[in-house]
């Protein structure tokens, strides 16, 4: 920043920097100069984009990007191609923009992100260009009251899995039930489960887990995915011929960042309840 320009910042009217799709983004660019300053223009840019960057090796990488907002305007322009003289003091340049009604939520992942910025640049006649930016957050909440009725109905899954080969092993039969199909952070997932060990070995690990899966896509192809365990319920071992019955088990949905990425084609976030069943011969 030059000695003439002592302050150059973007101030949004919402101090929390949090916006919903369709709301108005407004604020001002604030300049403070100590002396007469000749400038060529003040440019303002609102950008919303998703970037995926997955390294494959030292030189090879997968990269893709898509935009949701790309709005540009001049807050100060030299209409007659002559420099504009800013007198000493404080100068405010307001801006106002209606955000699109369909925007994916802000998201920060290890290999990709959805982010929104206000950017501004001021060019002096001396050739010096000052730049600044302000990040803002978009939250696109999901209203479960507006979702299809099936989301509030119970869910049940049954599976039978073969363990071992030949006379060593057998089958493990699993039944898992959820009280509904959609949850919000802070809620408890009510679980029921029954696992019947029909093998001739012991099931040494039985775990119900809430899993978050983040998938990254580049040019329409899945290039990477991450999985992390958010909560888990571990049960006792099941001997050969025995079974484990769980009633009123609970998995808690932890506080999570916005994950409604509707309209984003490069990052997908999914949540699932998984049953891990490991025998002594695995």
TrEMBL record:
UniProt domain Arrestin C-terminal-like: residue ranges: 168-282
Keyword Transmembrane helix in annotation: no
Annotated Gene Ontology cellular component terms: cytoplasm
InterPro entries: Arrestin-like_C (IPR014752), Arrestin-like_N (IPR011021), Arrestin_C-like (IPR011022), Arrestin_domain-protein (IPR050357), Ig_E-set (IPR014756)
Gene Ontology biological process terms in this record: protein transport
UniProt superkingdom: Eukaryota
Keywords, in A-Z order: Sensory transduction
PANTHER family the UniProt entry points to: ARRESTIN DOMAIN CONTAINING PROTEIN, FI21816P1
Family: Belongs to the arrestin family.
Name of the molecule in the record: Arrestin_C domain-containing protein
């Amino acid at each position: 920043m030059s000695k003439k320009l002592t302050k150059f910042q973007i101030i949004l009217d919402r101090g929390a920097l949090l916006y919903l799709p369709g709301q108005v983004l407004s604020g001002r660019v604030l300049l403070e100069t100590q002396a007469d300053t000749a400038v060529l223009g003040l440019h303002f840019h609102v950008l919303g984009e998703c970037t995926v960057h997955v390294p494959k090796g030292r030189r090879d990488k997968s990269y893709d990007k898509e935009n949701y907002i790309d709005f540009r305007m001049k807050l100060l322009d030299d209409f007659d191609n002559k420099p504009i003289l800013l007198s000493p003091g404080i100068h405010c340049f307001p801006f106002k923009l209606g955000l699109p009604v369909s925007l994916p939520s802000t998201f920060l992942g290890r290999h990709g992100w959805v982010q929104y910025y206000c950017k501004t640049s001021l060019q002096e006649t001396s050739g010096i260009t000052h730049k600044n930016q302000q990040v803002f957050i978009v939250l696109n909440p999901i209203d479960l009251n507006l979702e299809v009725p099936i989301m509030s109905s119970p869910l049940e899954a049954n599976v039978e899995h073969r363990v071992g080969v030949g006379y060593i092993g057998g089958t493990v039969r699993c039944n898992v039930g959820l009280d509904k199909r959609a949850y919000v952070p802070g809620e408890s997932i009510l679980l029921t489960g029954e696992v019947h060990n029909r093998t001739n070995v012991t099931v040494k690990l039985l775990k119900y887990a809430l899993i978050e899966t983040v998938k990254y896509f580049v040019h329409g192809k899945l290039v990477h995915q991450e999985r992390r365990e958010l909560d888990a319920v571990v049960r006792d071992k099941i001997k050969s011929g025995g079974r484990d019955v769980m009633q009123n088990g609970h998995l808690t949905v932890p506080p999570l960042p916005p994950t409604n990425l509707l309209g984003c084609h490069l990052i997908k976030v999914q949540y699932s309840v998984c049953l891990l069943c490991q025998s002594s011969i695995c």
